[in-house]
Amino acid sequence: MARSRSSSSIRWRYVNPAYYLKRPKRLALLFMAFVFVSFFVWDRQTLVREHEEELSKLKEEMERLQNELGELTQEGGVSVKKINTTTKRTDLTKMDSFVPDPIETQRREKVKDAMVHAWTSYEKYAWGHDELQPQSKNGVDSFGGLGATLIDSLDTLYIMGLDDEFQRAKEWVANTLDFNKNYDASVFETTIRVVGGLLSAYDLSGDNVFLEKAKDIADRLLPAWNTPSGIPYNIINLAHGNAHNPGWTGGDSILADSGTEQLEFIALSQRTGDPKYQQKVENVILELNKTFPADGLLPIYINPHRGTTSHSTITFGAMGDSFYEYLLKVWIQGNKTAEVKHYREMWETSMKGLLSLVRRTAPSSFTYISEKIGNSLIDKMDELACFAPGMIALGSSGYGPADSTKFLNLAEELAWTCYNFYQSTPTKLAGENYFFHSGQDMSVGTSWNILRPETVESLFYLWRLTGNKTYQDWGWNIFQAFEKNSRVEAGYVGLKDVNTGVKDNMMQSFFLAETLKYLYLLFSPPSVISLDEWVFNTEAHPLKIVPRLGLGLGLGSKQHKQPPTTTTRLRARREGRFGGT
């Protein structure tokens, strides 16, 4: 009689290895079960670990936001705590998901080499002076001896990673720069180059010496706004504070010179917590908006006593250009909130007026922006007006889909014209302005080239906003033309005539501040000085986008009010058409 097995012995046989060695199918099933359980346990542990890491990051972010909120305490409706805008260098060089293109890398290094050549020549022959004369190898003080090239170059050096050069320049700013000069300075030029350059260096490096120097020079400029209308005088003595307008304007202030300080002075108020800078420059816009025309186009001369315009040229070129640029960019700087809505509204009104100036040539159908005096159009366009394609592209994202496409297309058409300003001359460098005649397309007017940046600026914006590498190729062609015609032993010079190639003897400070910077960024990843986080002043100095001070200077009100509790980041790309970074 067979002996029956106990239930206990039956259960234990499943843990005996010999049982499975005799039954390979069950061994395989057991192995599969083991693998499944192992993966399940490992995956759960991974999820828990990732969850804990995510909670830790969220906790850190919450603490950071709570600290920032604590800093935004109010006194009389105005934030009295300065806003931290500093950025680590890693923020400038992060690649995200951007895949480096070897051609772009090579081109970017060539532009950097050009900056090194320009800068070392300035250091050697013109250190501390405003500008270098490369042919005679000496420095000149075109702006009263404020070290214009040095200050204009600070952020370019930082962005390009030229750390030793940046440190030497910083030491000069800290130990030698002195604004107490008996010199009649241009409020406009000093603001965009010096105030803008110092604030950008502060935002990038976090070194407080730049902020203190920016405050010093801005305080010396402030008396220029002490006019009956608040429209500033355009010239001021830096030592004595005496302000006036140039004689050749008939006592009037210039539109661009009076409406191109907003970005810098608003930024200074944000960073110091002192509202006086922002109040002065925002009052200018409120005054101009009282009589803002239906087409949004203002003549270039304004009476500083009455705040009214004088009969003069309407142009997106010299003396008009950056007024329109800053209407858009203050809206961006202000996080596109309700408090800066009137800037956008004024800019859109001006864009309707711009459309009335747009004309096309025959036979090649080049699109250009004409000028206007009274009711008469003048078929002329400055190279300075070639900033407009970039501005229009940058602002196109604020429209609905139909208008957004219309204005982006216009920007691309204008950029093609500006590129042909360069391609149409023997040197492949653009003249100062162009005239358009029926059946003849375009002809160069004033034929000098002084290393201006406006066309490459627009190419930079269009590449960033569309991803079209054609704009990089155009920029590279322009850079090669500068290398061929303007590079000399001791820096870069302009041309007296783009037809003959005869050279002048000046390396303009904006060549280092703007032209080379925009070319470098044209071949850099979009995350380097992201348009989501920075706004460029008209001298190409990037300023960090941060919360506005709530001064309550909106239309129809001058009462202080609390700043907005929420802000939005700049989104300069349209969904679907504009790619992200």
How does this model look, in words?
Residues 48-75 form a coiled coil. Belongs to the glycosyl hydrolase 47 family. The active site is at residues 189, 321, 432, 454. α5 runs antiparallel to α19 and α9 crosses α11. 49% of the residues lie in helices and 10% in strands. The model is unreliable at 1-9, 69-81 and 554-581 (pLDDT under 50). The chain is globular. The chain is built from 19 helices and 20 strands. With 581 residues, the chain is mainly alpha-helical. The strands form nine sheets. The chain has a three-stranded antiparallel β-sheet with strand order 5-6-7.
Silhouette:
globular
The structural class is mainly alpha
Strand portion: 5-15%
In percent, how helical is the residue content? 40-55%
Attribute tags:
581 residues; three-stranded antiparallel β-sheet; single chain; 19 helices; mainly alpha; disordered C terminus
List strands and helices in order, with pairings:
Elements: H1 7-12, H2 17-21, H3 24-71, E1 74-75, E2 78-79, H4 89-93, H5 102-126, E3 131-133, E4 138-140, H6 148-159, H7 163-175, E5 184-186, H8 187-205, H9 208-221, E6 235-237, E7 243-244, E8 253-254, H10 255-258, H11 262-272, H12 276-290, E9 301-302, H13 321-333, H14 341-357, E10 358-360, E11 367-369, E12 371-373, E13 376-378, E14 380-382, H15 388-396, H16 401-423, E15 433-437, E16 441-444, H17 454-466, H18 470-485, E17 487-488, E18 491-492, H19 509-522, E19 534-536, E20 542-544
